[in-house]
Amino acid sequence: MEIYYTTQIEKKVGRVAKWSKAQGYPPLLAVALLPSSAGIYNEEGRPHDPNNEALIKNIRGSEAMCFAWHPLLPLLAIGWKDGAISFWNAEERHLEEDSKTHRSPLSSMTWNASGDKLFTSDENAKMAVWKTDRMMRPIHIVSYDEQPGCTIRSATLGPTEPSPDGTPGVTSSVYYGVDLAGVTIVKWANDQGYTGVVQEFDTLVDTIIYYHEKDQLVVTTGGCTLHVLGKDEADQSWAQLSKMRFATGTGEQAAALQVCWGCEHTLASASDRDAVIRLYNFDTEDNYTLAPDGVDGQPARIVCLASDLRSGLLAAGTSDGAITVFKYTAPPSDGEPVLDFAKCWDSQPSFRVTGRVKAMEWGINPRLMCVSTEEGVSACRKMLLNHRFRDGFVVIQSGVDKLIVERVSEGDKDQTKPPARLEAKMQMLGLDISKGQLLVYDGTRADLYKVTDQGEITPVGGFQCASRAMAICNDSVFRAADDRIEVTNTAGTIKQTLAFDDIQGSPTVLSICRDYLAAVTTNNYVRVFKVAGREAKPHAGPGLIIPIEFQHLKVDQVACNASGSMVSVLCSSKETATEPKMFVFCSETNATVMYDFATDGRQPQRMVWDVVEPKLLAVQVLNQQADDLMDIASSGGAAPGGSPIEVALMFVSPDHGVLIQEYQSLAPSGARGFIGLQAPHLVLNKPSAVTTDTGRTFTTNSAKVIMQGFDRMQSDDEQVRSALLEFSYNLAINNMDEAFRAVKQIKSTAVWGNMAHLCIKNKRLDVAEHCLGKMENARGARAAREAKSIAELDARVASVAVHLGMVEDAKKMYIAADRYDLLNRLFRASGHWDKALEVAEKNDRIHLKSTHYAYAQHLEKTGEFDSALAHYEQAGAASIEVPRMYFEIHEMEKLEAYIKKKGIDDKELTLWWARYCESLEDKDKAYELYESVGDVLSVVRIMCYSGKFTAACEEVERQGDPAAAFHLARQYEAQERIPDAIKYYTQAKRFSHGVRLAKKYELDSDLMNLALKSTPLVMIDAADYLNERGEHDKAATLYMKGGKLSKAVEMCFAAKLFDVLQHIAEHLEANDDPGLFMRCSEFFLQHGEFEKAVKMLIAANQYTRALEMCIEQEVVITDDMAEAMTPSKDVMSAEERNLTLQRIAKVAKRQGSWQLAAKKYTQAGEKVKAMKALLRSGDTEKIVFFAGVSRHKDIYMMAANYLQTLDWHSNPEIMKNVIQFYSKAQAMDNLAAFYEACAQIEIDEYRDYEKALQALHEAGKYLSKSKSEDMGEKSAHLNQRVALIERFVTARGLITTDAKGAISICNEVLMSAPTDSDASESGVRVGDVFALMIEYWYEAKNAGEAYKLVDAMRGRGIAVGPYLDQRMVEEIHKALGLDAPTDHLAAANNAYAASQARNSGAYADGGVEEEIPDDLPEIEDDDM
What is the pLDDT of residue 1423? Predict the structure, then answer.
């Protein structure tokens, strides 16, 4: 149990007190002292400097008005009444001051979160911003002044935001209220010199609180009114979002309103008018109250609130000095919605201070608080109460200055004497007892008492002592000093000194167990002394008890074992009040072992070694991960806040470290805490009433509880105890030989049961099986054998633990193994149905319905029929189980009411009730019910039973229900109405029954139709019947349909049923009998069905014969036939397969199927032949694609040659492919020729000599790469053409600017051209040269010169029409008085025909004509 120690500051204090906030530094409390100083105190309320309590003094005699501790450093900012600002460095005890900025008493001081800015305000409404330099001196940044008469009473820190002017960095802001003439203006300001107005109120503002989660302000004003202000992100303006009024009165009561944040989104409020705390959640809009209890159980008026949001703590101070603390536990985010948020708060220990509470503040950790009252300031710290079990005595601290002493009874006997009580005159820092000698101390004084056999406590001595760690052994008192341990008598006289050197440090923590004293120093060294004799003698150490990597930890508790060979410690750090790590120093190895309880989800609190067994250690822990499925008693075994208390039992070995045995919960015993260990008992703090033999009743506070591993022992037999401990230890270290040797003399079944329990704790099923055999526990041994089939170790152990009565352990292990299905079964078997349903709902949904079903069966057996009905419904079995249940208990009225309530929605229930009515001969009711649920079969059955066959037929026809039709058919068959029976058998799709009747009554026409719809066996049976009756065509068809193809074919051959055989052949499969295919082929061949014959040969794998028939009978090979004739790669060699493919391709070519031939040539690997076949097909798209994927030079050439036969000059894509294929084939001569052809086309068709010249340049580029023998000759000729064209192009360009020069060039061109032709092969057409000059003279109106040139053209035999416009020629002749020529139109366009002839000759080698020889069996292919 934990309580708050309070230390009131003895000096006369001022208005304010603040705890330091910097992590990693010792907590310090700053208190304003009157008249003009500030004191610094440690967490116990003692002066930081014992020689100078008023550590910070104001030389001007001014009072300290407010404090602000730096959030990261031990730096205190002090605001004085005269307006001065002081910075005090706690490490260097150095003071810096600024007295120029503020001139009025300071009213508030606030550091921002990063500690780089301090906001201060004074009573003259001046707001200032500060920072510190390297020397921790205050540096003023900016100030904001208000008009005279204004005051600032409230301010709160705002968010950190980017700088408003866009400069790098962030800025901190503050919100404050400026009061003037009864109104308040809420403003904001930052550290960059910017300020603004948030909102103006027509009344005074009491409190301003920043709502960080939503970036809003919460403002309280007079009349207990709350305003929520929000900021518009668009224009940064503020507006009121909501307004509400507290139910705490008005007037004077309203002025006493206290508000603070309780937890996330939740505001706590209270006033001295009420005795409750009111909480409002802004996020969910829930409101609720908390009712604190006074220290004496009486409610009091709440006058102050303080919260620690980091730890979820909320403290309420009352008018009479009572402090109540609540702890908030947030509900799980994935759990069910919380209906009552008040249940999330748990009450913590209360305490009292002197006077009316004025202010409270939490410290750096949740164990520290300071309270300011009208009487002074108290430093409060929460500490565990001290307990001690030693030499048969139990000492329990029951209060700050109260304790109880009891003598532990022997065995299981009850105590016969009431406990002794002592009220010490001090706040006890520690206590100890040795053989009746009781020691208590508080750090300034030590008192000793004697506990008599009669239960009385008498003082025996005392002395002043500043030691904070003391212990007692017999009559010697051991106290820690600066660098030594002093041994004194009961009067404080020093008898012996145990010195420690500087390396070891000063002793800080002491502990005695039996005859050994353990001491731990400030440097984390440990030493052990034997103190049984007259003098203390070194026994072990010194040794480093905490490894170097954990040197930042501080030792809080130390415990020594019974032999002095091992010492354990618990620690704390600057960041956390307690660390989950425990360290054990082993003197035999001079080494330390560590165990981290955090891995088990637990937090250690105190530790005790066994008083006899040196290897056995017990640690009291808080289980921080307790599961709701575990049975945790609410009456005890739980710390304030709900964490269950457990005792961790473990063995500690120098060689094997810490070996956890079990965590024994204190919940079943109802104990408050753990005191001591004396195997096989735990000594617990458990108040209980005891009645003596004389009838006297009193309350004891301690009790001995058997350890779970010893719970079957019948007596405190030392031999059995030692054997069990030795067995447990060897089992833990896996030394099975020693374990069995330790217990081989034990015959008790109960003891073997204890050992089985220990095996379960250690998860040793092999040993547990042996123990179960010794116990003669057949069921347990069987469970151990069957558990071997379970995959998870924890689940295997749990299944055996159940048979040993260790149900709680089994639950935990099932959860650890994630075997919620087995946990569900365990809860069901143990009758915990609510938990079983909870497990199924959350973790085992696959068994949810089966769990509801099992629970319903259980409820039915116990007579809870209504509850059983509900669970049958949830299990989805109500339609079957509810009628059965009510029928068995003869509650048909309830069943009928239930069915009526469900209505026709539950078809199964209605059907059950209809059948029940039918069994009672209530046909009309049954008919009505059957019809309501659409049960056609039952409706027809009742109609037939009633003789209404016509109505039954109509119902069957209307509904089309097969089952009803079958029932009606059976009825007609019974009445020998065979046609009707066959009709409805057919409608019911029960064709075999129809076939049976048709055969029986020789209805052959119906027989065939029915048989074709029936199963193969029925078809064959009907075929046999028809064959006997001579109807062979029908029989053959049925044989074929029934799967007897051979018999069907034989019948066709025998009866010459050609049409039927043809039908059969069409339905033959490729995997049928090849001989059958051959016979069918011969049959079709004889009757001229050559295509069908070919298909049969293909199906028989006679590919050669099929190809021969295709040639002989001119049967066209289709794609499907070709694919069928293509052999698989795994049935013949590659060479044979390729030959077959080539044969198919040859036949396809002969038949003109060029694409099919190309496909088969490709499959045979003959790509060139495939390309030739494709060229014959003329499919340009496939030719281009095939050439692109083949990557073969000859194929590229053939494709390019083919493409030149097309209209390539008008299709850029074809031209592109021609160039690409010639390039890939490296055919430079062909590519050059192609470009020459392009040039000639440009000249002949378009007279575009510029583009022709470009094409000829490209031709020359590729011709230069040619390796042909006549490359030089071709290049010379090409260059000549290029030169000539270039001259002509030059003339065409000069004709408008330099006509004389152009005419001269044209004459030169004409002179170099042959005189007997058009000479287009020379590069320039002579007609174009003449046309250029004629057109010039025509435009120049010189008809004479133009006529001379026309006549010269005719003289060279050049047709005028393709070059000159007819109208121009006529006008030239007319101008000279001559008649127009008559040969102009007849000779037109001859040049184009000549050009086409030349172009076709350019690629005459690209032909693909091929003769197909008749010698098909030959393999060699002919050239294409």
Answer: 41
Helix (H) or strand (E) holding 528: strand 525-530
d(C-alpha 1038, C-alpha 1060), whole Å = 11
Q: Are 524 and 513 in contact (CB under 8 A)?
A: no
Q: Is 1060 exposed, middle or buried (0-12, 13-18, 19+ CB in 10 A)?
A: buried
Distance CA 939, CA 961 (A): 11
- Residue 274 sits at φ, ψ, to 5 deg, of -115, 165
Report field, pTM of the whole predicted structure over 0.85: no
Percent of the chain with pLDDT over 70: 84
- The sign of the CA dihedral 318, 320, 321, 324 is negative
- In 3D space, the residue among 95, 125, 93 whose CA is nearest the CA of residue 107 turns out to be 125
CA 168/CA 903 separation, integer angstroms: 74
Q: Give me the amino acid identity at 684.
A: L
Identify the pLDDT of residue 1394.
44
In angstroms, rounded to a whole number, what is the distance separating the alpha carbons of residues 1149 and 1156? 8
Q: Is the dihedral of CA 578, 580, 584, 590 positive or negative?
A: negative
Q: Are 75 and 88 in contact (CB under 8 A)?
A: yes
Instruction: Answer yes or no: are the C-beta atoms of 991 and 1010 closer than 8 Å.
Output: yes
Alpha-helical segments (H) within 776-922 = 778-786, 793-801, 807-816, 820-829, 833-842, 848-861, 865-874, 878-888, 892-902, 907-919
SS3 content of the chain, % helix, strand, coil (to 5): 40, 25, 35
DSSP state string for 353-366 = -SS-EEEEEE-SST
pLDDT surpassing 50 at residue 635: no
Answer for the pair 965, 991: CB distance below 8 angstroms, yes or no: no
Both tokens of residue 1058?
């050609």
Q: How many other β-carbons are positioned within 10 Å of the β-carbon of residue 376?
A: 18
Residue 836 has pLDDT above 80, yes or no: yes
Residue 154 has pLDDT above 70, yes or no: yes
For tokens 């070059």, what's the residue?
Answer: 1363
Among 239-253, 765-779, 806-820, name the one with the lowest average pLDDT: 239-253
* Mean pLDDT for all residues in the chain: 81
CB atoms within 10 A of CB 183: 13
> Tokens 């919380």 identify what position?
338
Residue 1138 to residues 560, 1160, 1191: CA-CA distances in angstroms? 94, 9, 21
Contact between 262 and 250 (Cβ < 8 Å): no
pLDDT tens readout for residues 1296-1331: 787 778 788 788 777 776 655 444 556 677 777 777
Element (H, E) at 384: strand 377-384
Q: In what order do the strands lie in the sheet with 266-270?
A: 258-263, 266-270, 277-281, 287-290
